[in-house]
Write a structure and sequence with these properties.
Elements (H helix, E strand, L loop, with lengths): L1 E2 L5 E2 L17 H10 L14 E2 L11 H7 L10 H14 L3 E5 L2 H12 L5 E4 L4 H9 L3 E4 L20 H11 L7 E4 L12 H13 L4 E4 L3 H11 L8 H11 L2 E5 L9 E5 L2 H14 L10 H13 L3 H4 L1 H15 L12 E5 H4 L9 H13 L1 E2 L1 E3 L19 E5 L7 H16 L7 E5 L5 H4 L1 E4 L3 H13 L4
Helix pairs in contact: 1-15, 2-11, 3-11, 4-5, 4-10, 7-9, 13-16, 15-16, 15-18
Bound molecules: pyridoxal-5'-phosphate.
Length: about 475
């Protein structure tokens, strides 16, 4: 955060807007219609009905002038494109990894890694799962073991590295289950589902040591690496003076495989798996040609490959990567000033509202996070994302497996929103908090069996949506 002469701290943008896109704030009655049409699922809203799209930070980040310029130099070829060679060279330069497999997005990397390394009954210890990761690992017969430190699941906390893995729990698991039954250890940078919370470099070092001692592979999901690098530099003693590139290299040296969604890391669209292990590379490359495309494009357009290459260079600059976490911290602090329960400390990717504490009268089986995301849209036109029980699955008894946390994520795509957008969001959420008793639960009317949160359709219990809209319109008119 930047400190003004007055002492006030604000997120200061180290960029200027040179291309802009108009957005529209629909009247409340139209927002109500839109949320009903979308089955109370913010994934199913039409973007034209959305004022501030805080659904995700994935594939919707602002690109730099350098990225756009590099896209014009793309070398379009099915095989042997120069764009891919430049990408490979950049990966070697930044991560020190020689083998690079391009994939069309993060979950494609998860598919290939899971198919290569996971057998029926294999265990995969991780700090915490991500939705698509879990789906791919389980599809291949894997069993996930979440070993995040206890503090990671403590919503209100001042612990700087809530994404750390519990070292004692990992040792215990290896002792009990045997290293041979572990497919790999997975660490996720700025752990998405628990509020974008980072791990420390020291923790990764310890995990890597245990992995080495037991001959287990260490796989890093680096989709949110940029913000994790920022937090290591900002919060972890002994790293303040290191450059972002130095910290990146240290992290990369500790991991056997790194994969990422370039929809986040590098602010473009695509992904990659990188390693120095030739044997693993050879195993995985056949799956790339099967599922993604030839080895020099992997289902990504060459223009995007250029954008990722330049984007990776961009995020090695602290002034570039701090903009998003600083804005998130600002939002978290402003919401806290109004008494709104949020995940602390502020993490990467977005501000996370504690829907369980916001709507304590809604039981988890009636999806408080989904209801809150729909209510926020009705009162503000802001599209957030449910990250709670609705994003979970049903157990074999047909009952919801209740999630550890009920969150609504308001993502701040990198370099997209301004401080006044954030103040607008805080203002509307504060009104909703005052009127939270009006919000009730949701029920499924159409429930897909896999990743149900993407396409599932729901309905509001007891028509609370109408009551909420009526109250808002009665206070402010339809056009607010
Ligand atoms: C930590 C993490 N891993 C993997 C993925 C999947 O990436 P993609 O959406 O590009 O498939 C995401 C996407 O949000 C993510 O946050």
């Amino acid at each position: 955060m930047f400190t003004l002469i007055s002492g006030e701290k604000i997120p200061l943008e180290f960029h200027k807007a040179r291309i802009v896109q108009k957005i529209n704030l629909l009247p409340t009655s139209k927002r109500l219609e839109a949320v009903r049409e979308g089955g109370f699922n913010t994934f199913l809203l039409k973007n034209r009905d959305v004022f501030l799209d805080m659904l995700t930070d994935s594939g919707v980040n602002a690109m730099s002038d350098h990225q756009l310029a590099s896209m014009f130099e793309a070398d379009d070829a099915y095989a042997g494109s120069q764009s891919f060679t430049r990408f490979e060279d950049k990966i070697k330069e930044i991560f020190g990894k020689n083998f690079v497999l391009p994939v069309h997005q993060g979950r494609a990397a998860e598919n290939i890694i899971s198919q290569t390394l996971v057998k029926n009954g294999s265990l995969i210890p991780m700090n915490y799962h991500f939705t698509t990761t879990k789906a791919h690992l389980e599809l291949n017969g894997g069993i996930i073991k979440e070993l995040v430190v206890d503090e990671g699941l403590n919503i209100k906390s001042s612990f700087a590295f809530k994404g750390n893995m519990d070292v004692a729990k990992l040792k215990d698991l290896i002792n009990k289950e045997g290293a041979d039954n572990i497919a790999f250890i997975r660490m996720e940078a700025c752990t998405n589902l628990i509020g974008g919370q980072p791990f420390s470099l020291d923790n990764l070092r310890q995990i890597s040591q245990i992995a080495n001692d037991n001959n287990i592979l260490l796989v890093l999901d680096a989709s949110l690496l940029a913000e994790n690098l920022h937090f290591i530099k900002l919060r972890e003693q002994g790293n303040e003076k290191k450059t972002i590139r130095q910290i990146t290299q240290e992290i990369a040296d500790l991991c056997d495989i790194i994969y990422f969604s370039a929809r986040k890391l590098g602010c473009a669209r695509g992904g990659a798996i990188i390693t120095n292990n030739k044997e693993l590379f050879d195993k995985m490359k056949t799956l790339v040609t099967l599922y993604e495309g030839f080895l020099t494009y992997g289902g990504i357009s060459v223009r995007e490959i250029e954008a990722i290459t330049t984007g990776l260079d961009d995020v090695m600059d602290e002034d570039v990567i701090r903009q998003s976490p600083d804005s998130i911290e600002f939002m978290v602090e402003e919401l806290q000033k109004k008494g709104i329960p949020v995940v602390t400390p502020a993490g990467g990717l977005g501000c996370h509202i504690d829907a369980g504490a916001f709507l304590p009268h809604i039981k988890q089986e009636e999806y408080p996070s989904g209801a809150l995301a729909a209510a926020i849209f009705i009162v503000s036109g802001i599209r957030g994302m449910e990250r709670g029980t609705l994003s979970s699955i049903r157990g074999s008894d047909g009952k919801d497996i209740l999630s550890d946390m009920e969150l609504v994520r308001l993502a701040l795509p990198r370099r997209v929103f301004t401080a006044s957008h954030i103040r607008f969001a805080v203002d509307r959420i504060a009104w909703l908090f005052e009127n939270r008793h009006l919000v009730k639960g949701l029920k499924f009317v159409e429930e897909p069996s896999v990743l149900r949160f993407f396409l599932g359709r729901l309905d509001a219990l007891d028509n609370w949506d109408q009551e909420l809209a009526n109250k808002f319109i009665a206070e402010f008119g339809d056009n607010m």
